[in-house]
């Protein structure tokens, strides 16, 4: 089990994105402890413009972890990255048209 802390604040959409990415890319169960920075002036000073910040159990931090490359590298360094999940997330979808699809006048039709 991976135990991480995330420095966040209410309504932070990037924090929600980071949480979803961590869970999606991890090779085991993730337990996230949310630390609300707005309750503490020192935390606001330290993390106010950096959130979301992810922290491992050794105190190592990751800023801008919502960037897939940065997050995957950080997880890989710790042995927590599921490479297959990363590949599935970053590989573009197959452009093969569905079976039975045809185009007429620039529009695609199924059937």
Write the layout of secondary structure elements.
Elements: E1 2-8, H1 13-25, E2 30-36, H2 41-47, E3 53-55, E4 61-63, H3 68-77, H4 83-90, E5 102-104, E6 107-109
Parallel strand pairs: 1-2
Antiparallel strand pairs: 1-3, 3-4, 5-6
Describe the structure concisely.
The protein has 111 residues and is α+β, with helices and mostly antiparallel strands. The chain has helices spanning 13-25, 41-47, 68-77, 83-90; strands at 2-8, 30-36, 53-55, 61-63, 102-104, 107-109.
Task: Explain how this protein is built.
This protein is α+β, with helices and mostly antiparallel strands. The chain has a single domain (2-83), classed as 3-Layer(aba) Sandwich (Glutaredoxin). 34% of the residues lie in helices and 23% in strands. The longest helix has 13 residues, at 13-25.
What descriptive keywords fit this protein?
four-stranded mixed β-sheet, alpha+beta, Glutaredoxin, two-stranded antiparallel sheet
The percent range for strand residues is: 15-25%
Q: Within the CATH hierarchy, at the fold level, what is the topology?
A: Glutaredoxin
- Overall mean pLDDT stands at 90
Largest β sheet strand count, sense and barrel closure = 4 strands, mixed
Radius of gyration: 19 Å
Question: In the CATH hierarchy, what is the architecture at level 2?
Answer: 3-Layer(aba) Sandwich
CATH class: Alpha Beta
Describe the strand arrangement of the main beta sheet, using strand numbers: 2-1-3-4
User: What is the count of structural domains?
Assistant: 1
CATH superfamily: Glutaredoxin
| Mass-distribution shape | elongated
What percent of residues adopt helix (DSSP H or I)?
A: 25-40%
Number of strands: 6
Distance between the termini: 47 Å
Main structural class:
alpha+beta
Instruction: List SSEs in N-to-C order.
Output: EHEHEEHHEE
Count of separate DSSP helical elements: 4
Low-confidence parts, pLDDT < 50 over ≥5 residues?
none
